[in-house]
């Protein structure tokens, strides 16, 4: 082992090599913020049918829709009023369309629905639209052995309704072996992992 100045030079060179190695590691692993990225360029849009294809049917379980952007306004400062929305693009023009996709949830979006979209990763996306928790009525009595049950009179607890009207039916999984009478009130929620509705509460039978 060298002594004196030579020993000091050797230690300094070793420290410099270690500093250079650490700097190289920092270059290879740039710092990234743990905060989620904010959606960009939110726009108000309308779902439309294309000039050469039919509007998606609910039975097809669509999650991507054609849209045109709109200019919308209202007149009064407060109170219940109708929003006036004018298309910025011609719905009959094949080149006018963007496409937007539902991120998750039990969303079916009817034609001509006004909805917010945002731009991210080279695509337009819908903000969450339909409620993932609803009330409903059983169609017929349900036994604990029933795997699924049909319900109607679905009403959202928050957000927009996942059905078009009160007579439209949903199939709901009886995961927790509930039982209930015909027309019993139930509460259901959307399971994002399995992609179906499940009961989380049903009024006890009489």
Give the structure's gist in a few sentences.
The chain has one helix and eleven strands; from the N terminus they run αβββββββββββ. It has one helix at residues 5-28, and strands at 40-48, 64-73, 84-87, 98-102, 114-120, 123-126, 133-138, 148-156, 170-173, 185-191, 196-202.
Identify the notable features of this structure and list them briefly.
single chain; 206 residues; mainly beta; 2 domains; 5-stranded mixed β-barrel; 5-stranded mixed barrel; 11 strands; flat
Task: Describe what you observe in this structure.
A hairpin with a 4-residue loop joins β10 and β11. The protein is built from 1 helix and 11 strands; from the N terminus they run αβββββββββββ. It has 206 residues and is mainly beta. It folds into 2 domains: 87 residues, no CATH class; 70 residues. The strands form 2 sheets. Strands 1-2-4-6-5 form a 5-stranded mixed β-barrel. It has a 5-stranded mixed barrel with strand order 7-8-9-11-10. The longest helix is centred in the first third of the chain and has 24 residues. The N and C termini lie far apart (93 Å). The protein is flat.
SSE order in H/E notation? HEEEEEEEEEEE
The helical percent reads 10-25%
**Structural class from helices and strands?**
mainly beta
**Form type:** flat
The strand order across the widest sheet is 1-2-4-6-5
Q: How many domains would you count in the coordinates?
A: 2
Please tally the helical runs, counting DSSP H or I stretches of 4 or more residues: 1
């Amino acid at each position: 082992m060298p002594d004196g100045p030579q020993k000091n030079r050797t230690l300094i060179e070793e420290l410099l090599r270690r500093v250079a190695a650490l700097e190289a590691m920092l270059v290879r692993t740039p710092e990234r913020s743990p905060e989620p990225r904010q959606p960009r360029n939110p726009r108000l849009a309308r779902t439309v049918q294309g000039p050469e294809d039919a509007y998606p049917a609910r039975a097809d379980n669509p999650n991507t829709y054609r849209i045109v952007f709109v200019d919308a306004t209202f007149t009064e400062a407060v109170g219940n009023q109708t929003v006036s929305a004018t298309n910025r693009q011609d719905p009959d023009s094949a080149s006018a369309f963007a496409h937007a996709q539902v991120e998750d949830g039990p969303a079916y979006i009817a034609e001509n629905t006004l909805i917010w979209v945002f731009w991210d990763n080279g695509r337009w996306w819908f903000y969450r639209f339909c409620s993932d928790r609803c009330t409903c009525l059983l169609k017929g009595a349900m036994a604990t052995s029933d795997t699924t049950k049909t319900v109607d009179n679905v009403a959202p607890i928050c957000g927009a309704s996942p059905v078009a009207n009160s007579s439209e039916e949903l199939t709901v999984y009886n995961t927790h072996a509930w039982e209930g009478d015909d027309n019993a009130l139930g509460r259901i929620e959307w399971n994002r992992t399995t992609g179906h509705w499940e009961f989380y509460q049903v009024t006890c039978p009489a």
